[in-house]
Amino acid sequence: LPKDASSIEIKNQYRKLAKQYHPDRNNESTEEKMSEINNAYEVLSDKNLKVEYDKFYKLNWFYSRILYYKI
Hints:
71 residues, mainly alpha, extended
C-alpha cells in the first residue's frame, strides 16, 4: 500500500489478504501470516496508531543509517 492510502484502500487490501490467507481456505498453516495481517490492519486503520507507527518507522530508519554509516 502507498503511504498515503485511504481508509477504503486499506480496508479493501485487508479483506483481499484476509481471504487469501484465511486458515479455513488454505491447506497450509497460515495462522501466523493471518496474525500479521490482522495486526497491520489494526495499526493502519487507527489514525493515531498509524501516526505513531510512522514516527517510529522514520526514527528507526534514521538510526539504522547512523549505525550503518557510523556517523
